[in-house]
Amino acid sequence: MSVVIEAQNISKRFFLGERNRTTFLEEWTAFTQHAVSLLLRRKKTASQHSPRREFWAVRDVSFEVYQGQTLAIIGENGAGKSTLLKILSRITQPTTGEVKVYGRLASLLEVGTGFHGDFSGRDNIYLNGTMLGLSRKEIRSRFDRIVEFSELAEFIDVPVKHYSTGMYIRLAFSVAAHLNPEIVILDEVLSVGDTAFQKKCLDRMAEIIQEGHAAILVSHAMPVVRRSSQMCLWLSHGRVVMFGPTDEVVDRYERESAEKLEATRGPSIARFVSWKAESRSSTNAHTLPASHEEVTFHFEVELTTSISQGQLGISFTNAQGLVLFSRHLPLQESQAGKIMVVLTLPSLPLSPGFYSISCTISNGNGSSTVIQGIPELRVTTERASDGPLGVLSLPGSSVRLERVRSE
Amino acid sequence: MSSVASSPSSLRKPTYVVSAKAWLLSRPADLWTYRDLFFLLTKRDLLATYKQTVLGPIWFFVQPFFASLVFSVVFGMIVRVSTGSLPFLVFFMTGFITWNLFFNCVNQVSQTFLINRHIFQKIYFPRMIVPLSQITVNFLNFVAQFGVLLLIIGVYNLTGTHIALSPRMIFIPLILLCLTIFALGLGCLIASWTVRYRDLNMLVGYSLQLWMYASCVLFPESIVPANLRWLVDLNPMAMLILAFRSCLFGVEHYVLSVPALLVLLVVAAIGLWCFVRAERNFTDTV
User: Fold this and answer.
1) From the candidates A13, A65, A93, which should be mutated to test the interface with B, based on the most B CB atoms within 10 A?
2) What is the ipTM, given to two decimal places?
3) Mutation site, A3, A12, A24, A125, interface B, largest B CB count within 10 A
4) Which residues of B touch A136 (CB under 8 A)?
5) A215 contacts: CB under 8 Å, gap ≥ 6
6) What is residue A258's DSSP assignment?
7) Using a CB-CB distance cutoff of 8 angstroms, which residues of chain B are in contact with residue A88?
8) pLDDT the model gives residue A319
9) CB neighbours of A362 closer than 8 A, spacing ≥ 6?
10) C-alpha pair distances (Å), A178 with each of A148, A201, A369, B16
C-alpha cells in the first residue's frame, strides 16, 4: 500500500487582533507613533510594545494516508480541522512542516464555488471543472455523465441564477463527483439536497473510495466515522490527541466526550458502566442481526446518589436523532451503587444500521442525567438488498403482485 | 492513477508539496496546467460585460469614442490645446484608449483578492490566472478600440485631412507588452496591499484619474513646462503613451526615458513579488 498523503509537523499560527487594525490610516498612525517614539528615544510603553497575541490553530500534526484508505478527522469545533484541510488543499501555507500529496486532491468543501449566475449550467460546468483542475477535454468527455447525474438535462442551458437552491447544489455536486481525484476530502457537505440525491452522492463517494482512491472525512457523526473510515485523527486545540485505528480512537473520544458532558451538566446522579445485548444468534455484545428473535439488553449504570421517587427510562434513537422506542419504570428507593436495567424485547424489528441506546435517570428532586450507551448498537443483515427498507423491519411482512383485471 | 498504484512511495514524485519553507504557493508550471481555466475566465469576463445590455459589445466602441468626443470639444475647441498636424480627436483618442487599457487593468487587477476571496478561500488554483485573464480581456477590448481609431483615421483621410501612419508602427506590440507588464505589476502591488488595507481601493481610482493628467494623454510633450519635466521623465505611462503616438504617426519624435523605464521595471518586479507573498497567506487576513 502506498502513501498518498504524508504530513509532517504541520503547524499554523494566526495572530489575534491583527484583523482589527485593517485600515491604512490606523496602520499609518501606529507607524508614525512608533517612529516618533523612536525619534524622541522615549522608552516604549507597554501598549506600544505589546506583542501580537499568537494563536496556533494547528500544532505539530503528523499523519499519513494510504491508498484505498479513509482517514477521519474528528474533534470539537475549533480544533483545527478546517485549517488542516486548507493546508492540505494548498489554500494557505503552514507556518511549519511539510505535506507531500501524491495524486490529484479534490475537496468537496468547495461545492459550487465560482459559479456565475448569468451563465448557463453548461458554461458553469466547464468553468467550475477547470477551476477544480480539469482540462476542457476531460470535462467534454464527462459532460454527459455529469448532466445525467445532476438530473438537470432540460435546464442545462438556463442561467443558473434561475435555478432553485436544490438544483444549484445538484449541479455543483455532480461536477465535484466526476473529478476522478485520487484523494477526496469530504467535510460534512452531504447535508444538502433531498434524501434520494444524498444517497446517490454517498454511493458515488463509496464508489470513488472503492476504486482504490483515498479519502479524508471530517465529521461529527461518530456512526458515520466508524462505518466509513479505517484510520482516525483526533484533534483538540490544534494538537493530535490520538491517531490510530478508528474504533480505538472513536471509543476513547466518545468516552471522553461523555465524561465531559457529564462534567458540564453539574452533579450527575448516575454514570455509565457498560451495556450488552444477547440473543440466540448474536456473537457480539454490541452487534445484533436483524432477526425476529427475543433480545435481552443489559444496561449497567452506577448511581452516585441515592434516589427516591425517581424514574428511569431506556430508549433507542436512530442516527437522525429520532426516538424509536422508549420504556420507563419508577425508581422508588435506590441506594447509591451499581444497578442493572434489563430490557427484554420479543424481537428487534430494526433495519440494519447504527442506533444509540440511552438511559435517562431522574431523581424526585428534579435533577436528571442522560447516560449514553457506548458504543452504539449495530444491527446487521445477512440478506441482500432486496430486503425491506426504512426504520422498521416488521416481522412476517410479505409483498406480492396481483393482476388488476381491466373491464 | 496507475502510477500511484505501482511504484513505491520513495520513488514517486509528489504531485505537490505544501511546505512552510516554500517560497511560492503555486509552481509557475501550474499556470500552464490551468490554462483552460484562463481561457474560460477570459471568455466569461468578455461575455459577462455584455450580458443583459441592449447594445452589448457595441458599448466598448461607443464609450471611448464619446469620451474622446467630449474631451475634443473641451480641450480641442475651447481650451485649444495645440496638437500639431493631428486632429485633436485622433490625437486624444490614441492616448485615451492606451490610458484606458492601463487604467482598467490596474483597477481590476488590484481587486483580485477582494473580489475573488470566496473562491480563493475554498479552491486552489494559481491565483495569477485571474489577473492574467483580466489583462487579456482588457487587451482584447483595446484591440477593438484601436480598430475604431483606425476607422476614424480612415474617415479623416477620405474627407481630405491627411493623416499618415508611420512604419514605426511595428514597435507598437512591444510598447503594449511593456504597458501590460507595468499594469500587471502595479495592479498586483495594490492587490497585495488591499489584503490588509481595504480602504486603499478608494484611493486607487482617484489617484489613477490624477495620473492621467501627468501622462500626456491630453496634450503633447512639447507643452510640458520645464519645471514639471520630471513628472514626465519619471512617469512610465507618459513614456509609453508618447512612444505609442510617436510610433503610430511618426510625430513628436520621442526618445525613451531611461528613468521611466527603470521605474516600470522596479514597480513590476516589486508588484509580482508582493503578489506571490500575499498568495501564500492572504486567506488568513481577508
Assistant:
1) A93
2) 0.80
3) A24
4) 36, 39-40
5) A69, A70, A71, A183, A184, A185, A186, A205, A208, A209, A228, A229
6) H
7) 18
8) 72
9) A310, A311, A312, A368, A369
10) 11, 11, 47, 21
> How close B280 gets to chain A, by Cα (Å)?
6
Distance from CA of A9 to the nearest CA of B (A): 10
Nearest residue of chain A to residue B31 (CA atoms): A133
The DSSP bridge pattern shows strands A239-245 and A231-236 to be antiparallel
pLDDT tens digits along A352-400? 778 889 888 888 777 778 888 888 888 877 654 555 667 777 767 778 8
CB < 8 Å to B283, chain A: 86, 91-92
d(CA B2, nearest CA chain A) in Å: 10
**pTM, full prediction:** 0.75
When the pLDDT of each residue in chain A is averaged and rounded to a whole number, the result is 82
| Average pLDDT rounded to a whole number, residues B132-159 | 91
| CA-based torsion, B36, B42, B47, B49: positive or negative | positive
Closest of A56, A59, A71, A60 to residue A5, by C-alpha: A71
Residue showing cell 513628472: B231
Enter the C-alpha cell of residue A346: 420479543
For residues B122 and A109, the answer to whether their CB atoms sit within 8 Å is yes
pLDDT in tens, B88-111: 888 888 998 999 999 999 999 999
DSSP structure string for A315-343: EEEETT--EEEEEEEEEEEE-SEEEEEEE
Going by C-alpha positions, the residue among B242, B240, B239, B237 that lies closest to residue B220 is B242
Question: What pairs with residue A216 in β-bridges?
Answer: A71, A185
Asked if B247 and B171 count as a contact pair (C-beta separation under 8 A), the reply is yes
Judged by phi (left if over 0) then psi (alpha if -120 to 50, else beta), residue B250 lies in: left
- Nearest neighbour of A98 by CB, restricted to B9, B17, B283: B17
Which candidate from B8, B51, B123 shows the least CB-CB separation from A132? B123
Tally of CB atoms within 10 A around A389: 10
Asked if A2 and B36 come within 8 Å (Cβ–Cβ), the reply is no
Residue B25 has pLDDT above 60, yes or no: yes
Contact B5 A89 (CB under 8 A): no
Lay out the sheet containing A70-74: strands in order across: A105-107, A183-187, A214-218, A70-74, A231-236, A239-245
- Report the candidate in A388, A378, A334, A331 with the shortest Cα–Cα distance to residue A357: A378
Using pLDDT thresholds of 50, 70 and 90, give the confidence band for residue B200. Answer: confident
